[in-house]
Amino acid sequence: MSVVKASWSDSSPEMDRCANLVMDCSFLAGATARVLNGMDRHDLETVLHVVEACQRAAAACIQACERHGALPSLQVCLRHSQQCAEACRALIERLHAHRTGRSKRES
Known about the structure:
The chain is mainly α. Helices cover about 85% and strands about 0% of the residues.
């Protein structure tokens, strides 16, 4: 993501904030993937919180990219953030369904 930041010629504070948000979202998505990779070792609630945080970060990134959408590099970030947010949303639904199904079986 530093390539994205380096490619922006406008160094306004708002653009710097957007670039940092894009990088933070990227780092959080990577961390989420690592947690999901070891999901069998983690508590379902913990996994759910991590995925929800990733979805919120992606949503914030989408908003920031849309505000500065004229740059081609931001269009790439926007698409990836949208895909990330959608994947998180779908996984959150499945995790909630799994949690609900599990609590019904435990009753």
